[in-house]
Amino acid sequence: MRAEGSPELGRNRPADFSLNYTEADFAEVTKRFVTAAEKMKADGWWWHDAALTNKKIRRQILKEMIASRFGR
User: Fold this and answer.
1) What DSSP element (H or E) covers 31?
2) pLDDT score of 51
3) 3-state SS assignment for residue 50
4) In angstroms, what CA-CA distances link 42 with 1, 4, 34, 47, 60?
5) What sign for the dihedral angle of Cα 42, 45, 50, 55?
6) Is-contact 36 1, C-beta < 8 A?
7) Residue 32 in 3-state DSSP?
8) Of 20, 52, 55, 63, which has fewest CB within 10 angstroms of its CB?
9) What percentage of residues in the chain have a pLDDT greater than 90?
10) pTM
11) pLDDT, average across residues 38-65
12) Are 11 and 5 in contact (CB under 8 A)?
């Protein structure tokens, strides 16, 4: 978000985000947010492994929970 000119949204600090926006201000923030997200997607920020199914995810979580519970 900082790259799009909105430093208040790129700092992981929600307390710094003002809610005192006009409709025009909000439209501009929305535009910048979407632009930043599109750039992040193009840069591979979010990826998708086609081999990773819901079943595999559930099994992996179950394995991690069991390992955590029994200290492995």
Assistant:
1) helix 23-42
2) 87
3) coil
4) 15, 15, 12, 10, 28
5) negative
6) yes
7) helix
8) 20
9) 36
10) 0.48
11) 90
12) no
Q: How far apart are CA 36 and CA 39, in angstroms?
A: 5
Token pair recorded at residue 1: 């978000």
For 12-28, the pLDDT digits (tens) are 555 456 778 889 988 99
Among residues 71, 2, 70, 72, the alpha carbon closest in space to that of 36 is found at 2
Q: Tokens for 40?
A: 């992040």
The arithmetic mean of pLDDT across residues 57-66, rounded, is: 95
CA atoms within 13 A on the CB side of 19: 2
Q: Please compute, for residue 45, the number of CA atoms within 13 A of its CA located in the half-sphere on the CB side.
A: 8
Task: Tell me how long the chain is.
Answer: 72
Asked whether the beta carbons of 21 and 29 are under 8 A apart, the reply is yes
